[in-house]
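Task: encode each sequence below as structure tokens.

Item 1
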Amino acid sequence: MMVAGDPVGDGRFFGVVDAAGERSGMVRQASRIGGWRPWAVARQAGTVVAVDERAGSWLAFRAPVEMGALSFWSERILRHGARIAWAGAMVAALGGLLGAAVALWRRGAQNPARLAQNDANVSQVNRVKTGGER
């Protein structure tokens, strides 16, 4: 369900109350006060209760609707999409760097003697092609 206003604090409560009177599934303070924000609670027996005893605060909520597990997780992923995209970009960049390092290592860039041997072989091939050595 969607909640707006300031649902937590002294004299305010918004959550689920079970048959024994135990409060659970309470709304926690969000980073932004005022606008509509989603509030989800696991399926449990109880009644949604809203209490606001302070004159300077307000609380609003829309009717609760059932949400499937896939809908819940897809909504959560969408909410954190920018963070997930940045994390994926960082993993891809690190993978690219690691791949480049492995490629250089396999080519022998870490072995100066092998590089010198390769240079000598290339020079010899060039001399043979140009007719410099017979």
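Item 2
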Amino acid sequence: MAKTSVLELPCEFTGLTGGKETCGLGIKVPRSALSLDRADDLFVNRQLTCKLILKRRKDADDQTQMMEVALELDGLFTTSKLGANGTHFTTKLTANSNSVAVAELFKFSNREGFVHVMKDEDPPAKAPKGDKSH
């Protein structure tokens, strides 16, 4: 069942991983941003329509202009599991390499920003092993 609502979560984007057909971006969300039940509902075996927003880097004291502009990236991501510690929830947003600008996604790695979740739903059913019809 699909749920449509905008949820803005502050996060730290962690490392980017790549595979043959997919790429993934880790995220850390402060526990104060959502409850454990909501994190479980949102990050375990879900498909998320998201907008990733990269925060601007802080200006140096003697800098008169921003060196880097903020970046936004829309995408369809799947999540499979939730990690948790005393301060953060963690998960990996996985996308098809052909459906997201991987070079742009790389710019989010090890930076801070926000995840805007516009829609969360069940992921598409996987084809059985050996089934080449999809």
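Check on item 2: The helical segments are 36-43, 102-106. The chain has a mean pLDDT of 85.
End of task.
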